[in-house]
Amino acid sequence: MDNGWVYVVHNGAIKSLKAKDGRKTYKIGITTTSVTKRYYGLGLKMPGEFFCEFAYMFDNGQHGKVETMLKNRFNQFNDNGEWFYLNDNELNEIHSVCKEYGGVLDTDTIQKQITEKDSIPTGITFEEWVEMPLGKKAAIKARVKRKINKQQKEEIIHEKRRQAGLKAWDTRRKKRAKEQLK
């Protein structure tokens, strides 16, 4: 059976003119691959930052059925495509449906994947980063950290030299001033 996630995300920059009575705009979505790839695709097209309200992982192939049910159930609150303006009661109903069909809450993992795209080292494409084994990611992050530490040390040394130079300049200036007074 296929594994997949049903997720609900919110982006404060996306507002619905139809949303009233404390409702917010949420995206109800599904993915069978990396959620990170899915969010990256969204991020290219949308302003603001995405936040995963919650996500359920299904290892029983029910994710597609659940997504369809939820979209049909909340069709009256549909704003545009997969975006719905919902309140807390409707979000609780989504939780219940996901649990009923065997979904396992996986929000932390998904949120970490969403924000991971912001910490990709320069020179590596997003697609390369997503597919990269964890060990290689750790090695790259360690190398970047060493480079940052080296840069910070160099900046500290430069600042100390600058301060020493200012002190020496100030000493010379005071000495010249004394000589002029004589």
Question: Can you describe what's shown?
Answer:
The protein folds into two domains: 4-132, no CATH class; 133-182. 54% of the residues lie in helices and 18% in strands. It has six helices and six strands. It has a six-stranded antiparallel β-sheet. Helix 1 (35-45) packs across helix 4 (107-116). The chain starts with a strand and ends with a helix.
Chart the SSEs and their pairings.
Layout: E1 4-10, E2 24-31, H1 35-45, E3 51-58, H2 63-73, E4 78-80, E5 83-86, H3 88-100, E6 104-105, H4 107-116, H5 126-131, H6 134-181
Antiparallel strand pairs: 1-2, 1-3, 2-5, 3-6, 4-5
Helix pairs in contact: 1-4
Radius of gyration: 27 Å
In total, the number of strands is 6
Biggest β-sheet: count, sense, barrel?
6 strands, antiparallel
Tertiary shape: elongated
Structural class: alpha+beta
Strand order of the largest sheet: 4-5-2-1-3-6
Distance between the termini: 95 Å
Strand content: 15-25%
What is the helix/strand order?
A: EEHEHEEHEHHH
How large is the count of helical segments? 6
Key descriptive features of the protein:
alpha+beta; 182 residues; 18% strand
Put the structure in a nutshell.
The chain has helices spanning 35-45, 63-73, 88-100, 107-116, 126-131, 134-181; strands at residues 4-10, 24-31, 51-58, 78-80, 83-86, 104-105. The protein has 182 residues and is α+β, with helices and mostly antiparallel strands.
